[in-house]
Amino acid sequence: MDQPTQPRPSWWHCLWGLPLLLAGMGVFGYTLFQGITHATDSLTQVVVPGTAELRLHRGRYTVFLEEDSVVNGKIYSATQPVDGLTCSVTSTQNGSAIAVRQPSTSTTYSVGGRSGHSVLEFPIEQDGNYRFACDYGENTTGPVVVMAVGSGVGEAIFRTVLGALAAFFGGVAAGLIPVVIVVISRERRKKKLIQSFRAQI
Length: 201
Description:
By secondary structure, the protein is of the alpha+beta class. The chain has helices at 17-37, 153-200, and strands spanning 44-48, 50-56, 59-71, 74-77, 86-91, 97-98, 108-111, 114-124, 128-135, 145-150. The chain has 2 domains: 12-35 and 160-200; 43-151, Sandwich (Jelly Rolls).
């Protein structure tokens, strides 16, 4: 009596999932690289002690102290403590002061030779020009450092990581589809062969 033949399809069909897996890995790497490298694009750097006039829109802004930074070709490194450094935000239209407080969440970044962490935040209720100023006070001195002001940095980093993970797991899932199909097909084929063999006995 003939024995049941080898179930089909072949395991080699699983390789059809490899391009899908590699594509997912590629999208993962590209999304992560692009998102992280551009996460700080919205930040405006201000060398302090000093002031800057900023055009701000309604929303919540975060102030970052950059430990390592480059501004106009000059390298800055915050290796010394900045005790006594205070920052203020005022409207240039009416001179009203904006409340500056500690950040509600901690955000850090390190990309493109820049690294920083959140130290302050403030809300903007109305679009307009605002004066951002930081100093050590009349009787205090300290190192020259770079503060970066912007909004949405933490959200941008979160979206980047979420998108990259979605691409990664999506690629893995897509790559496993041919494997699952092959396994199911082989099992079905195997059952049919066994049933056919038993019917011949």
